[in-house]
Amino acid sequence: MKPVVAILGRPNVGKSTLFNRLTGRRSALVDPTPGVTRDRREGDAYLGRLRFTVVDTAGLEDAPATKVESEMQAQTKRALADADVALLLFDARAGVTPLDRHFADLVRRASTPIILVANKCESRAANAGLMEAYELGLGEPIAIASEHGIGMPDL
Ligand code: GDP
User: What is the DSSP string of 43-103?
Assistant: First the structure.
């Protein structure tokens, strides 16, 4: 069985874009049923010589605001339990937000190995956010830009 890699992180950090990059898909899947919160998307991923199943925990964008936090926790815990490795993605241009910290706290307690991934690192606008990320206590962030395919060998 192929290893399972989950992509975690708050909305808009680029999880779907990374999913599409890893699976070779160029456009995001859209749930055909309005109002249905997508829990996860799975695909066959290729990264250099590595082959794995990638899971994108998307869909919180569609959840009612009052339920986002509890839904996020439940979804993240489910994904962590099923994954061999989790990528915690954040937007390095936006810097570390309170929601990113919340995610970091959640994943730090899990036994699943975590790789901290700084997305949107195609320009110098990401440098401050990249430095800030060390305070999350998840080690060195891997700088990538999933939209441009930058940093994939490091990942
Ligand atoms: P998700 O909500 O975490 O799944 O994030 P999406 O994949 O939908 O991306 C959110 C926004 O960030 C979109 O407008 C993407 O085009 C943009 N984005 C994703 N990756 C990058 C990147 O590497 N650089 C920049 N500048 N924008 C990106």
Answer: EEEEETTEEEEEEE---GGGS-GGGHHHHHHHHHHHHHHH-SEEEEEEETTT---HHHHHH
Centroid of ligand 1 to alpha carbon of 11 (angstroms): 9
User: What is the pTM assigned to this prediction?
Assistant: 0.89
* pLDDT, tens digit only, all 155 positions of the chain: 899 999 999 889 999 999 999 999 754 454 445 444 456 788 999 999 999 999 988 656 666 667 777 777 788 888 899 999 999 999 999 999 998 998 999 899 899 999 999 999 999 999 999 999 999 999 999 999 999 999 999 99
Ligand 1, atom nearest to 9 Cα: 3
Alpha-carbon Rg for the chain, nearest whole angstrom, is 15
Alpha-carbon distance of 155 to 19, in angstroms, equals 13
Which residues approach ligand 1 with their CB closer than 6 A? 9, 11-17, 58, 119-120, 122, 145-148
